[in-house]
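Form 7-S
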Amino acid sequence: MAPGALVPISRLSATASIADHSPAWYVNSMHTTLQPEKPKHFSEKITLVCERDVAYESPDHLVPKGTRTNNTRNKRFNRKLYWLFFDRYVHSQLKILDIGCSGGGFVRDCIDSGCLAIGLEGSDYSKKRKRAEWATIPDFLFTCDVTKTFELKLDTASQDRERIQFDAVTSWEVLEHIHDRDLDQLAANVKKHLAPHGLWIMSVSSEDDIVDGVNLHQTVKPREWWIARFKTLGLHNIDGYIDYFNTQFVRGPKTGNPGFHLVLSMSPTDAPKIPRVSWGQYFYDRWLGSDVQKILRRLVVGDELE
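Output:
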């Protein structure tokens, strides 16, 4: 089977394929919650070297909206991400970079799961106000204009200040905020921080977002345009991963944000193999966060899912 190909639905496994791996981890219920017997620790120092510490000219900084309110997270996405990188998650430390981290909720969840996770945000709105997770994990959240050159380094015992190579880079409704002329530099920044096997996972809005007469979305294009644009930059979309995450992303249509998802790889032959999923997992993903599930929860519990 070609790298990145999804196992057809007719061949889905009836059981989770990770159950026979390291005894230090176990499968909690059919929905594959990975839990460590002992928490992982992190003591190295993270250093950010950047050309510009805030995206001063960005409409999102001048007219803050998402950076003022968003702190979205989806632990189901996290579990599926850990499963995708299972060997690295268990035997070393999964490294995740969230570009456009807003309140830092996703980064915090990754850290709590034992990952090395770092968030970059173009506006200093949340940092100045210590909003959301900026008050709890300030050493892992940084402001930075990602359309200018930047470098994240890690001070280690064996070698000082080596550039971090991430297993996954995420961008939740960030790309449409970047002007087309700045995409080349952003992609170059991501590529130099992405491990050869790494993935750049993103949601992209397909609509304008006008606040006080200012359109916060500077590049509104169809999905095909983005795929072709990234291909010119040496990044290839693999739709098999879209099927694997199966609507369970941090942001996207299920969170009320019209648009689509892309999962990019510099080297599809080095990208992680897509795990098998059970029928139960497949339908659970489709159900979780759906309109019907939200309505039933509201009727039974009295509140809506975040």
